[in-house]
């Protein structure tokens, strides 16, 4: 097949145009699936950011290729820390794997009995300082919980009068919060007014008084801390458990709490939950219940969720994707925590519901772990673009911290937040500004090649013409 010289040039220039288009196109690094869920996520979770790039003298730098990469999330992707197998805690390698999956939130188990009798073991087991330094946000899990199992209540608690109970518990809260507040900033009142874990048989009114005292004590010890009240997601009329009604009473009584936590498990772990054929909570029912709790006007954490890998790991992973997508698309949900990292068949609470098949001698992630990792990756924004004549670049991304990078300059960091104006001026420091010329170098290479081909074809044609003339 013969290619005319000018046609060859056109083809090669078209390739060069495509090359430049690919290199300068903004990367959409936060795609998930199409359809209504992702449209709602884009609408409610993504925020617009404007960056103005200048030099040290304040001069706008136009035509500059700027990279932006999300390095943290404001949304809290969590795990619980309890472990039912000796030594009853996890090695740091597990938390490194979880961090690699996008997990940024964890629940150190700070029960009354453990923190009073074995504070050094608590710090060894649940590693609040280590996890904080790794970038995890932490909640003091079960700071108030009146269940007489799982090393929770001290033995003397049953012998106390109600007034003595309040006094001893207040002192305990003040001591624990003061001890750990450098690393932990959310504190949990767990399952108030729930009969099945109400081992001290408190009345509803007594629970209201406990919540009032506990919230005030937390704020006294940690004025910047947040108070989370953790409830089951379902109504249980047979034991007169109506969590929304109880929370409304706390609000009416002027009790200062900040966050509503909701527990969501499958099978028989949450009485009256609507389940599918796998024994997993039905997503549409979960959605409706979350919406009902949202009417209280407080942020919602899906504070403990999980289902087992039965009938299969594939089913477990698919349910995680559905429930996390559901929570992430609702603007008032600010955290989702898959409670069990590891839950063997012998686990007393919820066997086979963990993210790992095994954690020793080395961690073995299940499919649900990889589903978790894939979701967080899809909801992480990475991209690049060129500044306009005013040195400005605009992009949409999920809330969190971003690294801003330009070739030849030191990286900068910005923090993009939901519900705020996200306008930043970034002063480039480092070497003198040099425009990003490598796409244009590509054009030059292609142009030179095109010229060479053109000359070769013309010479070939001229050579043939000389032969014909000789004949």
Largest sheet, spatial ordering of strands: 3-4-5-6-7-8-9-10
Task: Tell me the major beta sheet.
Answer: 8 strands, parallel, barrel
Strand content: 15-25%
**DSSP helical segment count:** 13
Helix content: 25-40%
Taking all Cα atoms into account, the compactness measure Rg is 29 Å
> Which architecture of the largest domain per CATH?
Alpha-Beta Barrel
The helix-and-strand class reads: alpha/beta
Features:
2 domains, 38% helix, eight-stranded parallel barrel, alpha/beta, TIM Barrel, globular, 21% strand, 471 residues, disordered C terminus, single chain, four-stranded antiparallel β-sheet
Kindly describe this structure:
The protein is an alpha/beta fold. The chain folds into two domains: 64 residues; 303 residues, Glycosidases (TIM Barrel, Alpha-Beta Barrel). 38% of the residues lie in helices and 21% in strands. The chain has 13 helices and 17 strands. An eight-stranded parallel beta barrel has the order 3-4-5-6-7-8-9-10, surrounded by four helices. Strands 13-2-15-16 form a four-stranded antiparallel sheet, with no helix packed on it. A three-stranded mixed sheet has the order 14-1-17. Strand 3, helix 3 and strand 4 form a beta-alpha-beta unit. Helix 1 packs antiparallel against helix 13, helix 7 runs parallel beside helix 8 and helix 11 runs parallel beside helix 12. The longest helix has 33 residues. The chain is globular, with a radius of gyration of 29 Å. The two termini are 25 Å apart. 36% of the residues are buried.
Summarize the structure.
This protein has 471 residues and is α/β, with parallel strands linked by helices. It has helices at residues 5-24, 36-45, 92-100, 112-117, 119-126, 128-133, 162-180, 204-221, 243-252, 283-294, 313-328, 367-378, 438-470, and strands at 46-54, 65-70, 76-80, 105-107, 137-144, 186-190, 226-232, 259-265, 300-306, 333-338, 356-358, 364-365, 382-386, 392-398, 400-405, 412-416, 422-427.
């Amino acid at each position: 097949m013969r290619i005319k010289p000018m046609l060859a040039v056109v083809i090669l220039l078209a390739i060069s145009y495509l090359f430049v288009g690919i290199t300068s196109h903004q990367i959409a690094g936060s795609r998930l699936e199409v359809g209504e869920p992702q449209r709602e996520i884009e609408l409610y979770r993504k925020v617009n950011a404007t960056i103005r790039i200048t030099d040290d003298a304040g001069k706008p730098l136009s035509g500059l290729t700027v990279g932006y990469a999300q390095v943290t999330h404001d949304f809290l992707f969590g795990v619980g820390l309890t472990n039912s197998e000796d030594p009853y805690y996890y090695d740091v390698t597990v938390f490194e794997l979880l961090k690699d999956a996008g997990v940024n939130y964890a629940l150190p188990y700070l029960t009354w009995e453990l923190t009073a009798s074995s504070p050094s073991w608590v710090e060894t087991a649940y590693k609040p300082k280590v996890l904080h330094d790794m970038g995890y946000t932490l909640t003091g899990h079960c700071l108030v919980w009146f269940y007489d199992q799982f090393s929770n209540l001290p033995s003397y608690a049953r012998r106390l009068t109600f007034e003595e109970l309040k006094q001893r518990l207040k002192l305990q809260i003040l001591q624990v919060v003061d001890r750990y507040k450098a690393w932990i900033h959310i504190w949990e009142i767990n399952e108030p007014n729930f009969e099945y874990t109400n081992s001290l048989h408190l009345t509803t009114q007594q629970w209201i008084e406990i919540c009032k005292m506990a919230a005030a004590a937390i704020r006294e010890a940690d004025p910047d801390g947040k108070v989370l009240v953790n409830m089951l997601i379902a109504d249980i009329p047979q034991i007169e458990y109506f969590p929304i009604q109880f929370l409304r009473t706390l609000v009416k009584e002027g009790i200062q709490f900040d966050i509503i936590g909701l527990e969501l498990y499958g099978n028989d772990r949450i009485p009256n939950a609507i389940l599918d054929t796998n024994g997993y909570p039905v997503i549409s029912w979960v959605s409706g219940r979350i919406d009902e709790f949202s009417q209280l006007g407080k942020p919602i954490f899906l504070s403990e969720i999980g289902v087992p890998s039965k009938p299969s790991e594939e089913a477990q992973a698919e349910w995680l994707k559905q429930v996390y997508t559901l929570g992430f698309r609702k603007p008032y949900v600010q955290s989702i925590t898959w409670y069990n990292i590891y839950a063997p068949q012998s686990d007393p609470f919820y066997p086979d519901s963990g993210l790992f098949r095994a954690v020793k001698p080395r961690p073995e992630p299940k499919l649900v772990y990889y589903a978790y990792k894939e979701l967080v990756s899809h909801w992480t924004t990475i991209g690049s673009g060129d500044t306009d004549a005013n040195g400005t670049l605009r992009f949409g991304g999920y809330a969190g911290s971003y690294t801003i990078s330009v070739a030849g300059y030191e990286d900068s960091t910005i923090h993009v937040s939901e519900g705020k104006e996200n306008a930043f001026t970034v002063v480039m420091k480092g070497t003198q500004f040099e425009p990003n010329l490598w796409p244009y170098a590509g054009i030059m290479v292609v142009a030179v090649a095109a010229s060479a081909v053109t000359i070769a074809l013309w010479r070939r044609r001229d050579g043939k013409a000389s032969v014909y003339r000789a004949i």
